[in-house]
Every structure is written in structure tokens, then in C-alpha cells.
Amino acid sequence: MAPIPPGIRLLVSFNRDQWYRALTFILTFLLYTSFHLSRKPISIVKSELHKNCSSVSELATIASSSSSSSDSQQPSLPSLHTDMDCSWKPFDKNNYKQLLGAMDYSFLCAYAVGMYLSGIIGERLPIRLYLTVGMLTSGLFTCLFGLGYVYNIHSLGFYIFVQVANGLVQTTGWPSVVTCIGNWFGKGRRGLIMGLWNSHTSVGNILGSLIAGYWVSSNWGLSFIVPGLIIAAMGVVSNLIILMPEKKYERVNGHAEVYLQYKNSKTQSYDTELLLPRDSVCVPVQPVVVVKSESEPSAISFIGALRIPGVIEFSLCLLFAKLVSYTFLFWLPLYITKAAHLDAKKAGDLSTLFDVGGIVGGILAGVISDKLGKRATTCAVMLLLAAPTLYGFSMISEFGQGPTIGMLLVCGGLVNGPYALITTAVSADLGTHKSLKGNARALSTVTAIIDGTGSVGAALGPLLAGLLSAGGWDQVFYMLMTADFLALVLLLRLVTKELSSTKSRPISTVE
């Protein structure tokens, strides 16, 4: 008999449950990558909606001067180039920063309001259907924004409406994917797993920047249409593949016991049947216990979720942490354009380094918090280091591209590290808190509360940046440093609790 190839031997060494976990990890990673990919174009296109027309005016003046010198008999044509010659109405006025900030605010405010409802609705509907509908409609509204270029639409109301609608439907994504990943993976190395998984945020931002930057100067409508088609296609994929587990792992007497939740005493769902081993697989009798339940656990209420220890502190901390992160997300390319005098494409490409740093920061935050067993302390230390780093970035970014690259990487890691840890590992920990007595249906609501509160900060940050930048970018950075300091203050009680604990345990503040 021919020997089994090593590759086949490796494939069959994993059981069905492990394959489902790997598939869920990869699929949810790609799904939320497409969400962030579709959010990023607006920050790239801003510098195209309102261009720096001074260079255009200078070229026109030179051309006019050369023309007048060659033909002195003809009167020289004055250079009348204004912002209206090269910018997109209605963003061609002097208040363009306020208008662009209003577009950001409309999206993020709708996202924040919708997030509180999304988790509650998501627990009462099939996750697969809920996520698919949300991604398809999000793709539709993202494409609609790009069609404004195709059909030459200059109404501010149109773009505000599209942003509000897109913000509402995008709230279906985060509670759904966190519920999927949180129920498939236990608490053992959740910080590391979630840190790796949460890099989808930065990967989506990077891909969104590159895709939008490719067309921004020639046809910015495609900067939205292509990402819109991508997220819609991923919505179809999610409906075909995504699978929620109907079993839960608990440690009892050192053995991994499997509890299968039956819809009734006689039959089980199709998804449960898929998760059960095939007839040809030998299953040890001792570690398997089947508990039949006549009814599924009820969904937790909004007030009940707020009573879970740590939910309020981490939610308010995320409000300020996400304020900083989303200000960078929506305004960094424009800031680089103005500070470093680069075109829209180069500024967009350079801004991706912030997200590269965010990937490293999110993974480090997860690994360190797993090792120390102190989620709040890990976030607090990174927030403490982030504030002076932001000030350094505002100073160094004017000294050339080299120092700017280094500071972008460092800022990205320190700013996105706490944000990533709270929205993933901490949310999953709190959503499976021991006070819930195994009710996994609370995870979506808890996740929505934490991310919804953070989204309030995400809405305020870009809005304040648009208002404060009129008086100089220094004011924006002072605002960001203040937000980091407030996020740190809100965690002090949990940090004190962790440090006063005599025994280091994982997720000590949320158990």
C-alpha cells in the first residue's frame, strides 16, 4: 500500500470541529475586512473633493505670463482659477472642512445609534441572514456614493443621506462577527486569537486606501463602487458558508465536556447534525455528556448587560479610544496632504502605515494581556504612552517623510492596541461572564453596547477635528491627547483592582 502523503496526513489530523473553527476565523476575518474596506474611501477622496488649487493657479499664471510675453499685442488673461475650478461642489467653499466633517459625523452618528439596537435585534434573528442583508445593503449605499460622481450629483443632502443609511446598515457587522468568533473560541488564549483576528480592521483600512487611491485622481466614483461591490459579494459568501455552533465547551474535572443544546427532546437542528462526528469516528464515552433542554436561554436585556461588572468602564474608555482612532481613520490622509504637501494617492499610501502599526499593536496587546492576565492594565499602559507619542507625531511630521513613517507606525500601535483589545477580547470576555451562567446569547448585546458607546466617540472625533482644524492642526492633536488621558482615567478603578489582586489570573477584571 502506498504511503499517505504528508499533506493528506496533516489534513486528516484535524477533526471536523477544528476545521469549522479555522473556517470561521478566516471567514469572519474576511467579512469584517470588507466592512472597513468600504469605510475607508471617504478619507482618501476628501483631498479630491476639495483640492489644493494653488498649484493650478501658479501654472495658469505662468502660462498666462508666457503667452503675454510672446504676443504683447494681446491683453494678458488674468488667472481667475479659484477653488471652484478644481474642487467638487458643494465642497468648493472655504467651509469645506466643516462639510466634510458633517459627512463623517452623519455616518458615525447613525452607526452609534444603530449599534445599540443592532445587538438586541441580532440576538433575535438568524445571524447568517442578519449579516448577509446588512452587507448587501451596505454595498448598495457605498456604490450610491460613488454614483454621485458618475451622474454629476452636487447635492450635500444626497451624500448625507447615503452616509446615514450606510452607517445604520453597517451596524449589522460587528455584533454578528464577534458573536460567531466568540462562541467558537474559548477564553484560554482569547487575547492572542482576537488580536490576530482583529487585524482585519487595519487590513481593511489598508486595502481600502490602496483601492480608493488607485482611482482617486482619475475617477473617484470607482473608489466607492469597487469596495461596494466587494462587500456585497462577501455578503453572499457569508450566507453560503457561515455556521454558528450549537455546542459549548466547559472544563469539568479536567475533561473537556461537550454540551449540546437541543431545540427539543426528539430532534436537533441541521447545523447541530453537521457538528456531530461521523459514524466512522470513534468518540470516547467518558468526556461526553449530553444535556437536553426544552427551551433555549432567553436573550439578555439592555439593563442586564450593563450590570455585568466592567461593561460600563470599558464602554466609556472605548468612547475616547475610538475617538482618537477614527479621527486618524478619517482625517489622516488629508492631514498628510496639507502637512507634507503630497498628492492624494501618495498621502493615502503613506497613511496605511498607521494601520500597519495598528496590526502589531493589537496583537501585542492581546499577547501581553493573556500573559499577565490583566486586560485593563495593558490598555492603560498603552494609553499612557500614546498621548506623548501623538504630540511627537504632530511635531515630527513637518520634518520630512522618514520621521513621519516611523511615528506613524508607533502611533498606530499605541492608538489601536487598546481599541482592538476592548472591542474583541474584552467584549468576548464580558459577553461570556460567569454571572450569565452560560447564556451565550448575551454576547451580541454586550458587544453592541461596548462598540456602540465607542462609536459615539468615533462620531465626535472627526466632527471635532473638522471644527478645530480651521484654527490649526495643533488644536486637533491637543484634543486627541486629552481623549487618551480621559480613557486612561476611566480605567483606573479596574487597573487598581487588577494590581491589588494577589493572584494573577486571566481576565481578572471581568470574571
UniProtKB/TrEMBL annotation:
Residues 27-499 form the Major facilitator superfamily (MFS) profile domain. The chain crosses the membrane at residues 19-37, 99-121, 127-151, 196-216, 222-243, 311-332, 352-369, 376-393, 405-430, 442-464, 476-495. InterPro entries: MFS (IPR011701), MFS_dom (IPR020846), MFS_trans_sf (IPR036259), Sugar_P_transporter (IPR000849). One of its GO terms (biological process) is phosphate ion transmembrane transport. It comes from the Eukaryota. It is a multi-pass membrane protein. Pfam families: MFS_1. It is found in: Membrane. The keyword Membrane applies. GO terms for cellular component: endoplasmic reticulum membrane. Gene3D superfamilies: MFS general substrate transporter like domains. Keywords: Membrane, Sugar transport, Transmembrane, Transmembrane helix, Transport. GO terms for molecular function: glucose 6-phosphate:phosphate antiporter activity. The keyword Cytoplasm does not apply. It catalyses: D-glucose 6-phosphate(in) + phosphate(out) = D-glucose 6-phosphate(out) + phosphate(in). Belongs to the major facilitator superfamily. Organophosphate:Pi antiporter (OPA) (TC 2.A.1.4) family. This is Solute carrier family 37 member 1. It comes from Lates calcarifer (Barramundi). The gene is SLC37A1.
